[in-house]
Amino acid sequence: MNNKKTNIYPVLILLIVLMSGACERVVDLNLRDDVGKLVIEANITNKNEAQVIYLTQNVSFSQPNEYPPVSGAEVSVRSNNGKSYLFKESRPGVYTSDSFAGIAGEIYYLTVISDGKTYQASSQMPGFIPIDSVLAQKKEISDDENERRIAIKFKDPINIQNQYRFLLHVNDTLIKQVYTTSDRLTDGREVTYYFQINDDDIKVKVGDSVRVEMQCVDLPIYTYWFTLESSEGSGGPGGGVTPSNPPTNIMPTVLGYFSAHTTETQNIEVQ
């Protein structure tokens, strides 16, 4: 499965239609002036641990990857089963809850009050899908016999719409690219997803340690990450200076996302 990338330009106008119920939304971007806005990076997972939400301001494309934190906000999450979770600011711009595990199938509602404005979003946690294995295969076109390519294998459930996001770490360093796929062409099949690393300075070789995380995400979050992957393959919250404003599930519209997802991680030593 190939990951197609395109170059990003200093001024990017991204036209994307996001289906949300019966509503069509067109996002028109101009990167040059779209700075100093609130960025919300909110994740709820199925892991029984403290959940973390980040509030920052975005910076221009040409500036270093340093987000100014947004302090003093009120942050909370509730589920459709009536449970509520308060997030307290543990350090500037970082809001942390007590430990809890998200439950597949439940809908989670985010509320952020910052600078007198209220932002809200919802996300439904998909079912958990396990990783079968993470593979390191000899790279076919390489002058180095020790160079490898990484792949992940899993079984997609039949007759259920599924979307996936992946994170790849090599020797504890996050590869700053966006990796996504859906089961549009692989429903109910065994899936092998290959990671393409676009940074020529990063090579996976024998003896390296690799960690792969697979997230099962809902459709709006898949659309968010797929848009970033299609526009430039890296960057955005969690992976670089915010390059664009993909279709968000947060209203009123800000940069960022709210994702309730299941997750699993596997580690291998490259052979």
Per-chain topology:
Elements: E1 17-20, E2 23-26, E3 38-45, E4 49-57, E5 74-79, E6 84-91, E7 94-100, E8 107-114, E9 117-124, E10 131-138, E11 147-155, E12 163-170, E13 173-174, E14 179-182, E15 190-194, E16 204-205, E17 209-217, H1 219-231, E18 250-251, E19 255-269
Parallel strand pairs: 3-19
Antiparallel strand pairs: 1-2, 3-4, 4-7, 5-6, 5-8, 6-7, 8-9, 9-18, 10-11, 11-15, 11-16, 12-13, 12-14, 12-17, 17-19
InterPro entries: DUF4249 (IPR025345)
Protein name: DUF4249 domain-containing protein
Written description of the protein model:
Helices cover 5% and strands 46% of the residues. By secondary structure, it is mainly beta. It has two domains: 37-125, Sandwich (Immunoglobulin-like); 131-234 and 263-270, Immunoglobulin-like (Sandwich). A hairpin with a 2-residue loop joins strand 8 and strand 9. 34% of the residues are buried.
Structure characteristics:
271 residues, mainly beta, Immunoglobulin-like, 2 domains, 13-stranded mixed beta sheet, 4-stranded antiparallel beta sheet, 1 helix, 19 strands, disordered N terminus, DUF4249 domain-containing protein
Mean pLDDT equals 85
The span between the termini is 22 Å
CATH class assignment of the largest domain: Mainly Beta
Backbone CA Rg: 19 Å
From the 3D structure, determine the CATH topology of the largest domain: Immunoglobulin-like
* Overall strand count: 19
Succession of helices and strands: EEEEEEEEEEEEEEEEEHEE
| Uncertain segments | 1-32, 233-243
CATH architecture of the largest domain: Sandwich
Number of helices: 1
- Structural class label: mainly beta
Give the DSSP E fraction (strand runs of 2 or more residues): over 45%
What share of residues is helical?
A: under 10%
Query: What is the domain total for the residues?
Result: 2
Organism: Arachidicoccus ginsenosidivorans
Protein name: DUF4249 domain-containing protein
InterPro entries: DUF4249
